[in-house]
Amino acid sequence: MNTENWTEIRIIVPTADIDAAGAIATMTVPYGIYVEDYSALEEEAMEIAKIDLIDEALLQKDRTHGVIHIYISPEENPQEAISFIETRLQAERIRFEIELDTCKKEDWQNNWKQYFKPARVGEKLLIRPVWVEDYEADGRTVLHLEPGVAFGTGTHETTRLCLETLEQYVTPETVLLDVGCGSGILSVAALLLGAKRAVGVDIDPLAVKVAAQNGTLNGFSAPAYIVLQGNLTDKVTGTYTLVTANIVADAIMMLTPDIRRFLAPGGVYIVSGIIDIRENEVLSVLAANGFTVCSRREENGWVCLACTSDL
């Protein structure tokens, strides 16, 4: 067992933004987060515990802000997670503060894994964490996954919606571009579903490393599977029959005007990571750039859109 201390990252945000910020935080660690939110303390105490007598210390808690706690192992660099969180929170225009501390040694390395079990996604895939040896595929295609600290385990709504949508569009002729590929889960899933070739790109060098490793775990490497380090499409060349972007609303809107030059005629552009309150903004940008929505999926306030180009 590792005896070193873990790093605790505390993200302080207005309570109105706690759900969106929490969703972003879950993308950095695959073993869960801890959220403090006292904005509805009295109502929740009565609803859950059926009491109206609350400890004075709790009553003194800040009701206007919540705190999201995540924990980074001694083997990983917390600055990578912080950089990712800052970028995404800024993109979503969420005001925040970040505090760092060390936490006493705990057996996190084993404990967090209980929260990530084999998961059936859509009609065809089973996502299997590499440490789980005993599982039943039940005829599904198995995607072997080592998440590392890069986001993308398939358990979050944004990724699951993308995977379900991919099932509808991947063919043996599919050439996929995944912008903001994270752990590589979408690229690898597309290849397992029968795509001819996939290219993933991410700004985070750790994500690029993990995505390449996940390709190898599932039997894919160059030239069928390539992972690039770059910001959006700045390192991308060629055209693709399918483009995925499971990122955030602002990044999607920034990416969209440039994406048609990478999309082959008749190609499909899948965007996810969109909080429902910002869907109309994204739709406006898609329409302004000649895209028509051909399918839409929504779960727990997150939206995934599949689009074709009118131009």
Description:
It is globular, with a radius of gyration of 20 Å. It has ten helices and 14 strands. Helix 9 (249-259) runs parallel beside helix 10 (279-288). The protein folds into two domains: 6-112, Alpha-Beta Plaits; 152-309, 3-Layer(aba) Sandwich (Rossmann fold). The strands form three sheets. A seven-stranded mixed beta sheet has the order 10-9-8-11-12-14-13, with helices on both faces. Strands 2-3-1-4 form a four-stranded antiparallel beta sheet, covered by helices on one side. Strands 5-6-7 form a three-stranded mixed beta sheet. Mean pLDDT is 83; it is low at 41-56 and 104-111. By secondary structure, it is α/β, with parallel strands linked by helices. Helix content is 31%, strand content 30%.
Average residue pLDDT: 83
Q: Would you state the CATH class of the largest domain? A: Alpha Beta
Helical amount = 25-40%
Shape: globular
> DSSP strand (E) fraction?
25-35%
CATH topology annotation of the largest domain: Rossmann fold
Number of beta-strand segments: 14
Largest sheet, if any? 7 strands, mixed
What strand line-up does the widest sheet have? 10-9-8-11-12-14-13
Radius of gyration: 20 Å
What is the name of the CATH superfamily of the largest domain? Vaccinia Virus protein VP39
Q: Enumerate the spans where pLDDT stays under 50 for 5 or more consecutive residues.
A: 41-56, 104-111
Which oligomeric form is depicted? single chain
Write down the secondary-structure element order. Answer: EHEHHEHEHEEEHEHEHEEHEHEE
Structural class: alpha/beta
Number of helices: 10
Q: How does CATH name the architecture of the largest domain?
A: 3-Layer(aba) Sandwich
User: What count of domains describes the coordinates?
Assistant: 2
- State the separation between the terminal residues, measured CA to CA: 58 Å
